[in-house]
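Write out this protein's structure.
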Amino acid sequence: MPIYEYQCTNCGYDFEIVQKIADSPLTKCKKCGGRLQKLVSNSSFVLRGTGWYKTDYAAKPKEEVKKEVKVSDNQKKSAEKEKIGT
């Protein structure tokens, strides 16, 4: 269940409460009876594991993107023989 933050517009009292998403927002301050306003705050949402853009699809560093392919000596010799036709 998410944690919601409220602040009283009358006395300034602010608090957090755990509510279901389907629950209606609170409207009355429990200290002074004033009107409550739901606040928007930062969440601590973190993507963990594989399958997320951050871990699997994010841009690779430039060093990893451009790597030279080295051809072995045997492959060079066989390519030269094909050119000559022997």
